[in-house]
Design brief:
Blueprint (H helix, E strand, L loop, with lengths): L18 H21 L7 H19 L7 H12 L3 H17 L1 H4 L5 H10 L11 E8 L4 H14 L6 E8 L2 H10 L3 E7 L33 H12 L4 E6 L8 H6 L2 E4 L4 H16 L2 H10 L15 H4 L5 H7 L2 H4 L18 H13 L3 E5 L2 H13 L5 E5 L4 H10 L2 E5 L3 E2 L4 E2 L4 H13 L6 E7 L6 E3 L1 H9 L6 E5 L10 H4 L3 H12 L2 H12 L15 E6 L1 H4 L7 E7 L2 H16 L6 H38 L1 H4 L3 E2 L2 H4 L13 E2 L3 E2 L3 H6 L2 E3 L3 E5 L7 H13 L5 E2 L3 E5 L6 H23 L3 H15 L16 E3 L2 E4 L1 H7 L6 E4 L1 H9 L11 E3 L14 H9 L4 E3 L1 E2 L3 E5 L1 H26 L1
Parallel strand pairs: 1-2, 1-3, 3-4, 4-5, 7-8, 7-11, 11-13, 13-14
Antiparallel strand pairs: 6-15, 9-10, 12-19, 14-15, 16-20, 17-18, 20-22, 21-22, 23-24, 25-29, 26-27, 28-29
Helix pairs in contact: 1-2, 1-4, 2-3, 3-4, 8-9, 12-16, 12-26, 16-26, 17-18, 17-25, 18-33, 26-31, 34-35
GO molecular function, one term: arginine decarboxylase activity
Pfam family, one: OKR_DC_1
InterPro entries: Orn/lys/arg_de-COase, Orn/Lys/Arg_deCO2ase_major_dom, PyrdxlP-dep_Trfase, PyrdxlP-dep_Trfase_major, PyrdxlP-dep_Trfase_small
């Protein structure tokens, strides 16, 4: 009887979230089976069972490895041949070596170092030794209808052209059709280059049934030239959409005079079949080298190696004040010499000025612009809080109206104060059961905009400001929002706060909901003849729908990004990305003034270098690393929702929990359940008004009887060193990112199990009185939840136009500087004051953490709903409120005087307006 071990599990594609998981487990399953039967003697084991399992693994891996150069489909065939010939020891050992190489990823940087590579060289008949260590490895796809013999000639020629001293090395994968090439680009993150011939086939000759669940997204790919006979050109255009970082080369059969502009725009370079492969080889390496450049980081490294005399105002420069000190030795040893060697205030000598870059910093920002798909990109070294203020000050003036997400980051509210613009606050839909807000529905935005239009204030509206994605992972349908708003106001400026979404541009599903990608797609759409025809036909229809006028619409999109939050950058490293058709004509000067206003004249060169180096990373590894971070999030979700002990106390909030049904036309309600497995995201991310970013994992802890803040500090941090950013009354937020490892996910799961056991033990030891207290806490956290209030309104003294959205937050803010116009009131005394009919008007921002956004802003009237929420807050940190003093509010006398002055000014303005129209 065969011993039952883990290899008995049937590995089916539908049980996996992505191909990387399926591929990894398929190899591991083959290794487990081979090792077990090798130890127990192949001949004496149950041969039928063994053969079935081995055959099943071969079938899966033959399909998967078709899309990878290493180890590749030929290696699978060679393993299969070993097995058939009874070479079981070699068979087992070879599999173990491949698995070790794939898990450690040593095949990428340690070429020729493993025994498997040497065997692979012999098995595949490679004529040339594999390259030495420390070469950056990537893979190239050649899409051409070549015979097997022709493929081997091309492969051999490329091998001959490689040199041991090349900085980069590559392997080649051949395809004959568009479908296989696209699947490879989705599956294989090692691919950095595509060489495509004009005449290729469309469909794969392979049976793709076993991987169908992983390629459903390809069905939704649409191209304007779908009827174009040149599938090679079509493939290039699709790659530009899916993975724009890929270098594209085109092999043409037609004359240069017949090449279309779209072909020349799409590809790095066009070659002809008669040309030497050496030019293609050199072009491939050159293109990769160009992306690999880090102008500023490299300049800083070079500077740090130069001997210099330091006579400027930084004793720490070159480490002189550190390493010559008897009392700072530990500080210097902790950070090392390089950080101090690179510390300088110099802007010449190979370096550059952030405020007026002309050298390596300018080049670094241009490369970042290309990587993130913007027209202009600017580095920011003091966080996205500053980036937000720069954009607001550059684009809006006093009296301009800004439609703004009320629960956005506090920097935007302060930006309103600095710029003097008038905020029109938009309310997000509430998720009261979990004490959090969602995002602003499109209907709410359009309602406010149309209200302003009816009041004759549409011309004053300058900007729409929204958070994408929110702290809890709610992501807008960016193209839909901008399209429908531009139909009402074709010159609207959009500022998307993508502080938590910097990573999204490097994977196809996420990318379509980023600001820069959406701006590019809309610009392309509105400039097309197809759209103009659609627009004209719509105007003539009986019931025309609002559409942006192609003659009037302008794409003006800004995105602020906390690079350091989700990509590789030192803390406070951020970027401003711009896709504004009018930037050069209308904004450039004011933007640079605002940039200089808020940017230090002594920026951190280390932060700037990290932004430059991090950009290089995402251009080569962004696709893979982001996909892995999503995979880690999905693994964590599935483990928590299926583990019986964890389910007793914890739930992972699903799409359904976070997003009301009316905003989910796809019908998706969760990403995973034990019965049905994984739900594909593609349709929802393409069409729904809101989607949930799976890397934001809200863990519902209401049944523990412990509030979020206590759970974070008492359990996660103090006991286990688990760090998180956000909590609500009954949830804690975990996030995966490109630095999340499998071991960290495993550790978190083990920690949650320990906490569950601890809660069990504590409850077993409790008296009846203690249990009653716990049950009361559970009821408070699961049932007795305070309602989440909407924005109330500005006091009439601070309304721009009475009865019309828009408040003068700047005026209220600075009025509070006069202490004689302010007083304090305890929050528990506010109810009595409100019942007496008094209007309580805040003189300051009141920002509890969590949720981390203002529940009151200067000039805002305190409502009963806000008061109830305020009283029920059980967080310790509330900026703008001091327990010993209370809430800072305007005195009645100050408001009466302000109201009288406002009325007189308003009457004058109305008379001037009447005179103007008469």
């Amino acid at each position: 009887m065969i011993e039952e071990v883990t290899y008995n599990k049937k590995y089916k594609a539908k049980d996996y979230f992505n191909i990387a998981q399926y591929r990894s487990d398929s190899w591991n399953n083959l290794k487990l089976v081979a090792n077990h039967f090798s130890k127990n003697n192949f001949e004496l084991s149950a041969p039928d069972t063994f053969t079935e399992r081995i055959a099943s693994s071969f079938v899966a891996l033959k399909t998967i490895e078709h899309y990878f150069a290493y180890p590749g489909v030929k290696y699978i065939e060679s393993l299969e041949e070993m097995y058939k010939k009874g070479q079981y020891a070699a068979f087992t050992h070879s599999i173990s070596e491949v698995v070790r190489s794939l898990i450690s990823e040593s095949y990428r940087t340690n070429r020729g170092a493993t025994e498997t590579d040497e065997k692979r060289k012999k098995m595949l008949g490679d004529a040339k030794l594999l390259k030495p260590k420390k070469q950056n490895y990537f893979e190239v796809i050649v899409v051409d209808d070549l015979s097997d013999g022709e493929r081997e000639k091309v492969r051999s020629k490329f091998e001959q052209l490689k040199a041991d001293n090349d900085q980069f090395t590559y392997d080649v994968i051949f395809f004959s059709n568009l479908e296989d090439a696209l699947i490879a680009l989705l599956f294989n993150p090692n691919i950095q280059t595509a060489i495509i011939r004009s005449g290729i086939n469309k469909k794969s000759p392979l049976d793709l049934t076993s991987i169908q669940s992983f390629i459903v997204g390809l069905e939704g790919i649409k191209l304007e030239e779908t009827d174009n006979l040149d599938l090679g050109l079509n493939l290039g255009k699709i790659i530009k959409l899916l993975r724009p970082e890929i270098d594209l080369f085109y092999i043409s059969d037609i004359s240069v005079s017949q090449l279309s502009d779209s072909t020349l725009d799409c590809f790095n370079r066009v070659f002809y079949r008669t040309e030497d492969l050496q030019e293609i080889h050199l072009s491939v390496l050159h293109a990769v080298k160009e992306r690999y450049k880090t102008p500023f980081f490299s300049a800083l490294v070079d500077y740090s190696k130069k001997p210099t005399g330091v006579f400027h105002a930084m004793p720490i420069s070159r480490g002189n004040s550190i390493f010559r000190s008897s009392w700072l030795e530990d500080f210097g040893n902790f950070y090392g010499k390089n950080i101090f060697l690179a510390e300088t205030s110099a802007t010449t000598g190979g370096l550059d000025s952030l405020l007026q870059p002309t050298g390596p910093l300018k080049k670094a920002q241009e490369l970042a612009s290309k990587a993130y798909g913007s027209l202009n990109t600017f580095f920011v070294t003091n966080g996205t809080s500053t980036a937000n203020k720069i954009v607001l000050q550059a684009l809006v003036r006093p009296e301009d109206l800004v439609l703004i997400d009320r629960d956005c980051h506090k920097s935007h509210h302060y930006g309103m104060v600095l710029s003097g613009s008038l905020p029109v606050y938009l309310d997000s839909y509430p998720v009261e059961e979990y004490s959090m807000y969602g995002a602003v529905p499109l209907s709410e935005i359009k309602h406010r905009l149309l209200k302003l239009q009816n009041a004759g204030r549409l011309s004053n509206v300058k900007m729409l400001l929204l958070t994408n994605c929110t702290f809890d992972g709610i992501v807008y349908n960016v193209q839909k929002v901008m399209h429908e708003i531009l139909a009402i106001k074709p010159d609207m400026i959009f500022l998307w706060d993508e502080a938590w979404f910097a990573f999204a541009g490097f994977t196809p599903i996420y990318k379509q909901r980023t600001a820069m990608y959406s701006a590019r797609m809309l610009q392309k759409r509105y400039k097309s003849e197809a759209y103009r025809k659609e627009f004209e036909e719509n105007k003539k229809s009986e019931n025309p729908v609002p559409m942006p006028d192609p003659d009037l619409v302008k794409i003006r999109v800004y995105a602020t990004q906390s690079t350091h939050k989700t990509l590789s950058s030192l803390r406070q490293g951020s970027m401003i990305h711009i896709y504004d058709e009018l930037f050069k004509r209308k904004v450039e000067d004011s933007f640079h003034e605002a940039y200089k206003t808020h940017t230090s004249t002594s920026p951190s060169y280390q932060i700037l270098a990290s932004l430059d180096a991090g950009r290089r990373q995402v251009m080569f590894e962004g696709y893979e690393m982001v996909e892995k971070s999503i995979e880690m999030a999905m693994v964590l979700r599935s483990k928590i929702v299926t583990h019986p002990r964890l389910k007793k106390y914890f739930d992972v909030l699903t799409v359904e929990n976070n997003i009301p049904e009316e905003y989910r036309t796809s019908g998706i309600f969760e990403y995973y359940n034990a019965k049905d497995g994984w739900t594909r995201m593609e349709e929802a991310w393409a069409n729904d008004e809101f989607v949930l970013d799976p890397t934001k994992i809200n863990l519902y802890i209401g049944r523990t009887g412990v509030d979020g803040d206590t759970f974070k500090n008492k359990f996660l941090m103090d006991q286990f060193g688990i760090q998180i950013n956000k909590t609500s009354r009954n949830s804690v937020l975990f996030m995966t990112n490109i630095g999340t490892t499998r071991s960290s996910v495993a550790y978190l799961i083990s920690v949650l199990l320990k906490i569950a056991n601890q809660l069990d033990e504590e409850r077993e030891a409790m008296s009846e009185v203690q249990l009653k207290i716990v049950n009361k806490n559970i009821k408070s956290l699961t049932e007795d939840l305070p309602p989440l209030p909407d924005f109330s309104h500005f006091h009439s003294s601070f309304q721009a136009v009475p009865g019309v959205p828009g408040g003068n937050i700047r005026e209220a803010y600075f009025l509070s500087y006069d202490e004689t116009k302010c007083e304090f009131i305890k929050r528990e005394d506010c109810r009595e004051a409100l019942e007496s009919g008094r209007e309580i008007v805040s003189a300051s921002f009141v920002i509890p953490y969590p949720p981390g956004f203002p529940i009151l802003v200067p000039g805002q009237v305190l409502s009963n709903e806000i008061l109830e929420f305020f009283i029920n807050l059980d967080v310790k940190e509330i900026h703008g409120y001091r327990d010993e003093l209370g809430l800072r509010i305007f005195t009645k006398k100050a408001l009466n005087r302000k109201k009288t002055a406002t009325a007189m000014m308003g009457a004058g303005a109305m008379n001037r307006t009447a005179t103007k129209f008469n």
